[in-house]
Design goal:
Structural class: alpha/beta
Order of helices and strands: HHEEHEHHEEEHEHEHEHEEHH
Largest sheet: 9 strands, mixed
CATH topology of the largest domain: D-Maltodextrin-Binding Protein, domain 2
Number of domains: 3
Strand content: 15-25%
CATH architecture of the largest domain: 3-Layer(aba) Sandwich
CATH class of the largest domain: Alpha Beta
Number of helices: 11
Radius of gyration: 23 Å
């Protein structure tokens, strides 16, 4: 409550009185208040979705009446760390070049994002989401393969079969921190895969492989063409998909539409980069 009051520029007591008055007028509780903060009740969440739609429609309508076609404001993009850090971050300048009044926030972390709770305006997800009031667009298929550094192979030898991986140092995810079943792809390569070195991010695993710590499953768009890395078993590959997702309430937001379109263009221009083998 204090944080919200600070952002609104009012006192905490005044904000609390307004919320209490609103709850009284609607004859329902909108917030559950605890010592750890406040969360929306079911009725509160329903009202929140309604006012979001109202806000989006009003903003779109006033922009049309004013003849404003400029893309402006802030858009936060949530993305898996591999895509966000390795692909999107180096290309963020394209957004500013195309839309000088647009501010882009990129959050590349290894977890899923709640669009309904406004953790992000747009999310890049691994696998197609099945629930929620969402707009969804497939972005691209991407492949992963087994990689090791030349230094590691010179030191430990090159495995000639998948079974031979058992005698090597393997790098993978921290099992209990895998946030999506789509990321549990190690079992598709070796049923008894066990990570001797576990890193909770795709970028961290890639850096460990590149430094010669062991053999890991890396995104081809991150690893292919990197000096000193060798792709093992070229015929062994895993395929996944990235999807662009944004909330239904933002369907008329010009800035969101523009960013979705530009994301699609960026990936389309380099589509072969994501599945090069």
């Amino acid at each position: 409550m204090l944080g919200a009051a600070t952002r609104l520029g009012v006192s905490q007591s005044r904000l609390s009185r307004h919320i209490t008055a609103l709850e009284s007028a609607l004859n329902t509780r909108l917030l559950e208040r605890t010592t750890r903060g406040s969360t929306l009740t079911e009725d509160g969440a329903a009202l929140f979705e309604t006012v979001e739609r109202i806000e989006a429609e009003v903003l779109a309508g006033t922009s049309r009446l004013r003849g404003e076609d400029d893309v402006a404001g802030t858009v936060r993009i949530g993305a898996p760390d591999g895509f966000g850090s390795a692909f999107l971050a180096p290309r963020l300048g394209r957004f500013r070049d195309t839309y000088p009044d647009l501010r882009v926030q990129l959050v590349p972390v290894p977890r899923s994002f709640s669009l309904s709770e406004r953790e992000a305006d747009i999310a890049i997800m691994v696998g197609r989401p099945e629930k929620g009031r969402l707009r969804i667009k497939k972005l691209v298929d991407y492949s992963l393969g087994l990689y090791a550094s030349k230094d590691y192979l010179a030191r430990a030898g090159t495995p000639d079969t998948i079974e031979a991986l058992k005698s090597h140092t393997l790098i993978g995810y921290v099992d209990d921190l895998i946030y999506s079943p789509e990321l549990n792809y190690a079992q598709e390569i070796a049923r008894d895969w066990r990570a001797d070195i576990a890193v909770s991010t795709a970028v961290g695993q890639f850096e460990a492989v590149r430094a010669g710590a062991g053999i890991g499953i890396c995104h081809d768009f991150m690893a292919s063409g990197i000096s000193g890395l060798v792709r093992l078993f070229p015929n062994v590959s895993v395929t996944r998909s990235y999807w662009i997702v944004w909330h239904e309430n933002l369907r008329v937001a010009r800035r969101v539409q523009a960013v979705v379109q530009l994301l699609d263009e960026l990936v389309r221009d380099e589509r072969d980069h994501f599945a090069p083998f």
